[in-house]
Amino acid sequence: MRVIDERPPVPVADDFAVRVRGLRMSFDGVEVLHGVDFDVRYGEVFCLLGPNGAGKTTTLEILEGFRAPAGGEVRVLGLDPVTQAVQLRERAGMVLQECGFPRQTRVAELIDLWRSYYPAPRPLGDLLEVVELTKVRDTQVRKLSGGQRRRLDFALALAGDPDLIFLDEPTTGFDPEARRRCWAAIENLRGLGKTILLTTHYLDEAERLADRIAILRAGRIELAGTTHEVATRAGLATRISFATPSALRRGQVPPPDGIDLTVRGSESVCHTGNAAMTLRLLLAWAAAHRLGDLNGLAVTAPRLEDTYLQLTGSAGDPA
Amino acid sequence: MSRTIRLTARQALLEQRSFWRSAEYALFTFVFPLMILLLIGAANAGSHLPGTHIKNTTVFVPGILAFGVIVAAYVNLGSKVAVLRHDGVLKRVRTTPLPSGAYIGGLLTSTVATAVLITSATGLMGWLAFGAAPRAGQLLTLAGGLVLGTVCFAALGLAVSSVITSAESAGPVAYASFLPIAIISGVFDPTFSGLPDWLSRLVAAFPVKALAEILQNTYAVRPFPAWDLANLALWTAGGAAVAVWRFRWHS
Q1: Per the domain annotation, does A286 fall within a domain?
Q2: Sign of the C-alpha dihedral computed for residues A279, A282, A287 and A292 taken in this order
Q3: How far apart are CA A113 and CA B8, in angstroms?
């Protein structure tokens, strides 16, 4: 007798945890995703950042196998989310928006039930610890605070010891303290070596948590890369500033050559695409005119916020 | 297969534990029918159905058995699933590899357990308080009738859950959709009569009176309830069809 496993083999070697190519989606004939491309590497925290209505949740729902895309290619852990949904759910944990818990259940009891759904669950004590809920393990879930409920979401998503975790707007509507603890829990997940794909419309959240970011706006990826790359690719310059030397203000020394310096009273500012070169020129100029080390010298890398505001803040934004 | 059964049992166990933790569910499911049994039963004790030697309580007690089945299977299951859907619990379950059969199976198993408990308590109390017991050799038939009733009203409960749109209205909708029918079906009053002809025909089309009559037949000799069995079968098929067709994992 031969036992035949009818499930297709799971590809083990795939360069990316998530691979999205030309993803399109329409609702009632209206296209909401117009060919989205991005990759999530194993072990990284990847953030899909964008304003409300940009298509973040729709994208996530397609990756999770809840919706079939209208076009394009999607691979999650090497699997097709639509046809291999069961295998995907054994290996991917999901935290969706606005998912409740069964009333009258207790924290540890519920996590334990969830563990029974998976072939190789994480130990219960370990799960409680990662999300910092050990103290309330015997509390009924309806008595938990908003932040505690969200961390219980994480524990349930982590119950099957997944390789990949989806987090859909994990801190929306939280107060600063709850957000901070939620972020700490996400850092703990990262510490376990999990690949995390999260969506958010909070910049500081993306900046704080993500290894790489893709900015989704009106159904298109505008930019993708590390925080720094995203800001740089947007064409934003590094800002260099220092306290205006009194000799310069009084016109006793000429302004530096080859630098577009703006003197704003006590502060002098310039923007550059090549910070090292500009600094070298500045310091040479300062030495030549005996200005010493420039007081208050500060180099500010282009910030994600500037990029984001430039991309999404335009008036008449349909999102 | 054994995994599905194990998961079903586990789910059912958690549902039962949650059920007993919830004061309002336990109260309505157990205290309400038992209270009606004792209060109305006491008012009817000693009197007989007009023109017969059948004691009122002999048909009243199985009527309350039917009531218990309906509360456990229709009201509780229907409102429970509506609340689970509204709260997003069904949506969350959908994110796990748990087979949907094991989840629904767990809910149904728990419902059956509740129905068994409530009908046992009602039957026992009806016997102790009023001496009402099934006819000799009819115990198995009674059990069969209870199973039929539970299956039928569980299907209807799942069906009605899909038209309930909020957690707050779940209980009221479930009760309001059957309590008036139960009253004019004479479930609470064995001597209930004097309905206009069209209304008694209408009421007879619903499965409440049908189940009550099937159960009453095992307590007091009555004509074989062939029409009632057909009625229950039709409602079961219709309820199951709507339940499957309209079932949604999210609200």
Answers
A1: yes
A2: negative
A3: 11
Q: Which two tokens stand for residue B30?
A: 């157990």
Digitized pLDDT (tens) for each residue of chain A, 319 residues in all = 444 444 444 444 567 999 999 999 999 989 999 999 999 999 999 999 988 888 999 999 999 999 999 999 999 999 999 999 999 999 999 998 888 999 889 999 999 999 999 999 999 999 999 888 999 999 999 999 988 999 999 999 999 999 999 999 998 888 888 889 889 989 988 888 899 999 998 888 888 899 999 999 889 998 888 877 887 776 677 888 999 988 888 888 888 888 888 888 888 988 888 888 889 999 999 988 888 888 889 988 777 777 777 777 643 333 3
Q: Is B41 within 8 Å of B130 (Cβ atoms)?
A: yes
Q: Which of residues 92-111 of A touch B (CB under 8 A)?
A: 93-94, 96, 98-105, 109
SS3 of B66-114: HHHHHHHHHHHHHHHHHHHHHCCHHHHHHCCCCCHHHHHHHHHHHHHHH
Unique residue bearing structure tokens 């007009």: B50
Distance from the A105 Cα atom to the nearest Cα atom in chain B, whole angstroms = 6
Q: Is residue A49 located within the same domain as residue A168? A: yes
- Token output for B250: 């999210």
Q: CB contacts < 8 Å between A and B, how many?
A: 63
User: Do A166 and A91 belong together in one domain?
Assistant: yes
pTM of the predicted structure, to 2 decimals = 0.81
Structure tokens at B94: 């959908």
β-bridge pairing A212-217 and A262-264: unpaired
- What length does chain B have? 251
Question: What is the edge-to-edge ordering of all strands in the sheet holding A71-76?
Answer: A30-41, A16-27, A71-76
How many structural domains does chain A have? 2
Whether residues A246 and A201 fall in one domain: no
- Helix, strand or coil, per DSSP, at residue A68: coil
CB spacing of B10 vs A86 below 8 angstroms: no
Q: Say what the ipTM of the complex is.
A: 0.86
- For A261, the domain range is 237-304
C-alpha distance from B147 to closest chain A C-alpha (Å): 27
**Polymer length of chain A:** 319
Indicate whether A205 and A283 sit together in one domain: no
